[in-house]
Design a protein that fits this description.
The protein is mostly helical and 269 residues long. The chain is built from 10 helices and 2 strands. The radius of gyration is 22 Å and the shape is flat. The model has no long low-confidence stretch (mean pLDDT 83).
């Protein structure tokens, strides 16, 4: 897997309806989709959620290729979770497959399939949020949604800023890691051969310059913010004032309908 395949935190500029939605709407719809995902209990519910996700991917014009590349880093986690569900889900009647201490039941196969779909769709919907929302708008949306917490003296602006900066610097750190690896490979370093422990030891010389680069970038960012007289969220104005439009209301209503529909399907089937 190449580091360039990790697309978490990247923003794909565009003018689609998903890009134009209010960031608060996209955050709330993502939360609603995740809730519906965990409420789904049968195949019809998962198929509807999958169809909605595919439609959103097409509308966003991000492309399925970018989504699949972003899924590569968690492929091992998906497979491992599916195997655990396959072998450790109890079933009724005779097992479909039996060897050593393992038993595979029909319930285990369905549990593995549902878990694969759930993890893949969960990651993809969060990818679409960052793919179609710039870090600045994401920060503004999070801050607006968390505004009620200011009543109990929660530093909402600072929390939103930290989350946004963390997302923004994921692609930067990945690019920096790729450059350091290429430079060390040109000097004879080997990151691909050997066992697991040998590969882990080979990464140690990579981590030191990476941490130095990360601290340097953090210091440069702090100096730049101080030079621009940044003193937190008090009294700050925004170039773009967030306003909910008709499309936002329809999107929020669609998220609520999706949750209700998944619950009804779980009770009918």
């Amino acid at each position: 897997m190449a580091l360039k395949d990790i697309t978490l935190g990247q923003y794909f500029p565009g003018s689609t309806i998903l890009h134009r939605l209010d960031p608060r709407t996209k955050i709330l719809c993502t939360v609603a989709y995740i809730i519906a995902l965990f409420l789904a209990k049968n195949l019809p519910g998962y198929l509807i959620l999958l169809a909605v996700l595919c439609a959103l991917t097409v509308v966003s014009k991000v492309g399925f290729g970018a989504v699949l590349r972003g899924m590569k880093p968690i492929f091992i986690i998906i497979v491992f979770t599916a195997v655990l569900n396959l072998f450790y889900t109890p079933g009724q009647g005779e097992p479909l497959l039996s060897f050593w201490v393992f038993r595979v039941y029909a319930e285990g196969i369905w549990a593995a399939v549902f878990m694969i779909l759930r993890i893949a769709m969960l990651i993809t919907c969060t990818f679409l949020l960052t793919y179609t929302t710039s870090p600045i708008l994401l920060t503004d949306g999070l801050e607006k949604l968390l505004n009620p917490l200011k009543a109990v003296h929660v530093p909402v602006h600072e929390l939103a800023m930290m989350m946004s900066i963390a997302l923004r610097f994921i692609p930067t750190l990945i690019e920096e890691t790729d450059k350091i690896m290429s430079a060390q490979k040109a000097r004879g370093a080997d990151f691909d051969t050997g066992g697991l422990m040998q590969k882990a030891r080979a990464l140690v010389p990579l981590l030191v310059p990476l941490f130095i680069s990360a601290f340097r970038r953090a210091d440069e960012l702090a100096v730049a913010m101080e030079c621009r007289c940044y003193h937190g969220g008090e009294g700050r104005t925004r170039m773009r004032v967030l306003k909910l439009g008709t499309a936002d209301v329809l999107a929020l209503a669609g998220g609520a309908v999706l949750c209700v529909l998944v619950v009804l399907l779980g009770r009918i089937f």
